[in-house]
Design goal:
Blueprint lengths: L1 H15 L3 H6 L2 H8 L4 H6 L30 H6 L14 H20 L6 E7 L12 H15 L6 E4 L19 H7 L9 E4 L12 E5 L10 H11 L4 E4 L18 H9 L2 E9 L10 E6 L4 E7 L6 E8 L9 H9 L7
Parallel strand pairs: 1-5, 1-6, 2-3, 2-4, 4-5
Antiparallel strand pairs: 6-7, 7-8, 8-9
């Protein structure tokens, strides 16, 4: 009695179940694998064309270089102007001649931008070799101040008055403080030797009441936000007071830092980024690593005023190191090439050339 009652149900279930071959062919895993050449043995067994006669999947066989791979190749003029980047930059502290190379390279570019035929009034420079990389454990504030001194003394050579500025404590009460990389910088500035340019160089904070009528250049040392307080309002106030006199930011870090106090939140972020972008980058140097590590060095990115963005790839080790110019991007101060382009060039296999 029981078996006959369930017999129709079992028959319906048997008819409703799809054939085994259909279920296998509809399996997503099998479909994914066959897209990369898997399942070829099954196909051969069924009399279909064998793997030896089947067309290779698209993109698997090596081919000629894409036309866009030859874009932005350095010209003879670019190769003649390429930089002789110091080697063994992972050895710290750096020798004096290595620091001197970066000082001269940066100061020359910045000075040309603010004192040329069409002087720029709002500029910034990024110098990030190991001793000036605040994210590394070999950061040296003395190197930053030596760079600032070289720039200030160069601008003051013709009797121009330069004011060197570093932000003061920000925040209120127990939340008052400074970025760690700027701790003690103001006191060191007071004790620095400015040589023959001492009477033309003065020190100040970053705020609207700092600029004086006799000041002609302003150098802002690594302005940056902290948790719960933004330095941008002080920079804007100082800019309004300075008028059309040149202001130079060295290694600024003006990205938003979110906090529980609703400071630097989503509201107003677009306006803040737009303001920061109005400061034109006139010098840029940084080493290229595979993040989050700082070793090994894969290459370098460099830009100087009125020049091109130069992408260098490092070859060799230790004393045989060499930075070879692989690309030159004529994008000006509007921005460097994207991360995808840089990665493609740096990781590509090829000879040194350049």
């Amino acid at each position: 009695m029981t078996s006959t009652a369930f017999a129709p149900s079992l028959a319906l279930r048997a008819r409703a179940r799809p054939p085994r071959a259909s279920r296998a062919s509809s399996s997503p895993i099998r479909a994914f694998w066959s897209g990369f050449g898997g399942g070829e043995k099954d196909a051969d067994a069924k009399g279909k064309p064998s793997s030896s006669t089947r067309k290779a999947p698209s993109g698997r066989a090596p081919g000629k270089a894409k036309p866009e791979d030859d874009v932005n190749m350095p010209t003879e003029e670019d190769l003649a102007r390429k930089a002789d980047i110091p080697i063994m930059l992972n050895n710290t502290p750096h020798p004096r001649e290595v620091r001197r190379w970066f000082y001269d390279d940066c100061v020359t570019s910045v000075t040309r931008a603010v004192t040329g035929e069409e002087p720029m009034t709002r500029v910034k420079a990024k110098v990030e070799f190991p001793e000036l990389n605040v994210n590394g454990d070999v950061y040296r504030v003395g190197t930053l101040l030596e760079l600032v001194r070289e720039l200030a003394m160069t601008l003051a050579k013709d009797g121009k008055r330069v004011r060197v500025c570093v932000q003061g404590s920000m925040g209120e009460g127990v939340f008052q403080g400074l970025p760690l990389s700027l701790s003690g910088v103001a006191r060191i500035l007071d004790m620095m030797d400015w040589g023959d340019a001492d009477e033309f160089i003065s020190r100040g904070a970053i705020d609207g009441d700092v600029p004086q009528p006799e000041d002609e250049f302003f150098i802002l040392i690594a302005p940056q936000n902290i948790v719960g307080f933004a330095v941008l309002p002080r920079i804007i106030a100082m800019e309004e007071a300075a008028g059309d006199r040149p202001m130079i930011m060295i290694n600024p870090k003006l990205d938003d830092i979110q906090s529980a106090g609703n400071v630097m939140s989503i509201r107003g972020r677009g306006e803040r980024r737009e303001y920061v972008s109005t400061w034109r980058e006139v010098y840029h140097f940084r080493l290229l690593y595979r993040k989050p590590y700082f070793f090994p060095i894969y290459g370098a990115m460099r830009y100087t005023h009125d020049g091109k963005w130069e992408l260098y790839k490092k070859f060799g080790k230790m004393e045989s190191e060499e930075y070879v110019l692989k690309r030159a991007y004529d994008t000006g101060s509007e921005g460097m090439p994207g991360a995808g382009e840089v990665t493609k060039v740096i990781l590509a296999k090829g000879e040194r050339n350049g």
